[in-house]
Each structure stands twice: as structure tokens, then as C-alpha cells.
């Protein structure tokens, strides 16, 4: 199985950016570019906005006493970002199981027109009172499924680990 080529920035822009920012001087590391922790902060900021947009934000947590916990993540660096360059964050939904979802966050260097890095993630829906994974409520599952279906129609793929994803029972169809 061959890895897909990186999509172009124009293709990634089919996913509206959830966050944009200019790399500030406090982000610089000893190598003269943005330090890894700031990429992770960008992905987290983008994920929080993306989750809020589908109904999984602070209001949901307060009303339902449920949220999401990170289960697995993989950060991949593809090109550097230097101080003063503008970046955008885009979220692509890949799949949903009864209690988890699989997605990828993409940081694009707007100044150079290159994909800077990706964060592939698997998140569990968790009952915050029991601290255990819990099924998504039907309305929220429907919203996530609609995002997954919309993003599945995009004509491009991102290189993924191949080791992360939603595990489905044998009797449940994919998709």
C-alpha cells in the first residue's frame, strides 16, 4: 500500500481553516524555526474550535457531563515554519465508532504555501462523572457522521499512520 502524496494547499483549503495565526518570536527554538510545542498548541487550538463547531464544546461538557479524552496521537513534521510566517489549521474528520472518533489536524504554512505538519488523533467520548468511555448521543453522532461523510467526498488524502482508526465489530459496516 503506497502512501498518498501530500495534497496541495488549495485542496486543503476545501476544509475551511478553523484557526489562523502568525508565528511569534516566542515560538522560536535554537534551530531558528517554530518549536514542536507550538505546533502542538496550534493543533489543540484548532481541535477545540472544531469540536465546538460540531457541538462538543464547553456548553456540551457542562450540560451532559461528557467530553473527549485523547487516546492516541501522531504528530508528523513535513516542512518548517519560521518566525513571522502565517499558519492555518484545518480539521478533517475520518471516522466514528460508538465511543471514539478519528480525525487529522493539518497546519499549513500560508507564507510558503506548504503543508507544515499533521496531527492524526483518536479521541474517546467520555462520561466525566465515571471517567469511562461512553457512546455518543444520537444527535451528536449524526453531526460527526455528516462531517465524516462530507470529508470522505474530498478528492485527496493525507498520509496517515495506518495504525490508528476506529475499530468496528465484524457485523458493523465501515462508513
Automatic annotation (TrEMBL):
Keyword tags: Hydrolase
Class of the enzyme per the UniProt entry, highest EC level: hydrolase
Record bears the keyword Hydrolase: yes
Entries under InterPro entries matching the protein: HotDog_dom_sf (IPR029069)
Example of a GO MF term: hydrolase activity
Keyword tRNA processing (UniProt): no
E.C. number(s) listed in UniProt: 3.1.2.-
Official protein name in the record: Acyl-CoA thioester hydrolase
Organism from which the protein derives: Janibacter alkaliphilus
Taxonomic path: Bacteria, Bacillati, Actinomycetota, Actinomycetes, Micrococcales
